[in-house]
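Model it.
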Amino acid sequence: MNKMTEWNSSRFGELYADEYDALHDPGTTKESVDLISSLAGDGTLFELAIGTGRMAIPLAKKGHVIQGLEASSEMVAKLREKPGGEAIHVQIADMSEFETRERYDFAFLVFNTLFNLTSQSAQIGCFASVADCLNPRGYFLVETFVPNIGRFRSGEDVSVSKLDTESVWLEAVVHNGVDQTLDFQRIRYSHDGVKIAPLKMRYAWPAEIDLMAQLAGLRLKHRWGGWSREPFTDKSRMHVSLYEKMT
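Modeled.
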């Protein structure tokens, strides 16, 4: 069986945990922490796909009460190695279907991680599970890129993500427009040899994400084109969307 068809929520951590912090810095961590902190206020926080604690640890340092969910034990091990990481409660579970004993005021899922769930049903399940663990009038914040299918020629694309005198990094993608899936191979050539790492994503358009939220009993409260609350337009390449639990 093709490895891409075996993709699940824990696979990302197995492949990327060791280098995640070094190689997957979005460059917007401070802005995202600041916005979530201001929106959440004194409410209890719950982060889906908490990973290595990039968001959770600085939020905890700001004084927020935060817990998390993560499918990959490898990612949680990296979180535990960091100062403050050992104090954050993390539930190991698949974010497409989970239950918690606690109820939270503010949940969030950032850095395109919703798209790591590779079917529409799994993404719908994620919204339903989040709605179940929110207090009345609680909020769910989601950040993803806006799909750009125009980049694909005959359903494929190859791009250079890094090039210097020591290495070249390539990213090859196959696009399936029916399933809205992207199958990646990330290839690194250097003096140390060749390293490849796969990734599978299932993108969704903002309007589709709104419908997933509505099915779960959540309604769109705000949508911005970035972490500085800039307006969302048809030119926006990402969106930060805030949903409120309907009572």
